[in-house]
Amino acid sequence: MKLNAFVIGATGWTGAEIIRLLEQHPHIADIYPISRDADIELESIHPNLTGINKKTWSLQSLPPVTPDVVFISLPSGKSQEVASLFNNDRTRIIDLGADFRFADPATFEKIYGKPHLAPALQNAFRYGYVEEFREEIGQSRLIANPGCYVNAALCSLLPLIKKNIIDTENIFISAVNGTSGAGSSAKRELLHYNMINNMLAYSLNGHRHTQEIETVIKTVTGNEANVSLVTSHGNFARGIFMILAVKLKDNVNADRQAILNDLSEYYESNPFVFITGKERGASGIEKDYAIYPQLAKVIGSNSCHISVDIVADKRELRIVSVIDNLVKGAAGTAIQNMNIMMGYNETTGLSRYGI
């Protein structure tokens, strides 16, 4: 059976990316873009979709079909009422906002400063971090997609915590996101004129993905985590370049290659997480760029590239994790979740390789 897919929030960057990927998916019958306004030619908003020949629908004038899957790509706080519209025994829902990521609706309200309007629906949602919760996702009809920074961080941290390699008392994360991570609304600071040769720090008073990372670490490993996440936008459109600094446990050898081997073993059967480190040069002090992941190499893919290094005298492990924020950080993971929910191969319609 092929699926009818609704994409709500189709005029945003993530909505467009979902549509782009679904167009290549062999199990999709038709895609219905839904936005605030109906009858907008989609390619007039997203020229990269030229030739798609689709107009938007609106929530007030929905397509005359029952969707098999609904992707909700709306600002946080907007998904709750929309999800309720499609909550039936047939339709799978994948929410890319934060509305259903926390088991306790009060946690969402505290972090996002908005009331939770669908607390009864919250209990039916499962958290869609694929690398850890495949079985639960496969048995679920409602999925909350992880945040983009959360995906990049958890891919790096969870195997190291589960293998008792690192402490969780002080996890420092510095992440640079493309300007698409700020959404598609016009912002003067993000104009090309301002972004060239520039970077913009934001949310240094506490990024809202911090507690999401800490919550998943506690859920999966039982460890309390203290995460410090600092974020900025770089002068590029898409991608997340993340560096993490953590302390090695006292009984762990400060052996870079051994830790890379542990990570490679952990992700051996994972189709989208790659450990890319190689042996450093003989001197160990040259600028050897090739031993760390490069952001450009994952753009357009659903992959996460990870490598590590060690400051031996400080017993500090430094990790580089790179993803495309619009694919692995959003649309790609959503489609990976759909594949698992429907019993398809999870790689269907997704690329492991950057452009």
TrEMBL record:
It is an enzyme of class 1 (oxidoreductase). It is found in: Cytoplasm. GO terms for molecular function: N-acetyl-gamma-glutamyl-phosphate reductase activity; NAD binding; NADP+ binding. InterPro entries: AGPR (IPR050085), AGPR_dimerisation_dom (IPR058924), AGPR_type-1 (IPR000706), NAD(P)-bd_dom_sf (IPR036291), Semialdehyde_DH_NAD-bd (IPR000534). SUPFAM superfamilies: Glyceraldehyde-3-phosphate dehydrogenase-like, C-terminal domain (SSF55347), NAD(P)-binding Rossmann-fold domains (SSF51735). Transmembrane segments: none annotated. Its EC number is 1.2.1.38. GO terms for cellular component: cytoplasm. Pfam families: Semialdhyde_dh, Semialdhyde_dhC_1. Residues 4-140 form the Semialdehyde dehydrogenase NAD-binding domain. GO terms for biological process: L-arginine biosynthetic process. The active site is at C148. It catalyses: N-acetyl-L-glutamate 5-semialdehyde + phosphate + NADP(+) = N-acetyl-L-glutamyl 5-phosphate + NADPH + H(+). Pathway: Amino-acid biosynthesis; L-arginine biosynthesis; N(2)-acetyl-L-ornithine from L-glutamate: step 3/4. Catalyzes the NADPH-dependent reduction of N-acetyl-5-glutamyl phosphate to yield N-acetyl-L-glutamate 5-semialdehyde. PANTHER family: N-ACETYL-GAMMA-GLUTAMYL-PHOSPHATE REDUCTASE, CHLOROPLASTIC-RELATED (PTHR32338:SF10), N-ACETYL-GAMMA-GLUTAMYL-PHOSPHATE REDUCTASE, CHLOROPLASTIC-RELATED-RELATED (PTHR32338). NCBIfam families: argC. Belongs to the NAGSA dehydrogenase family. Type 1 subfamily. This is N-acetyl-gamma-glutamyl-phosphate reductase.
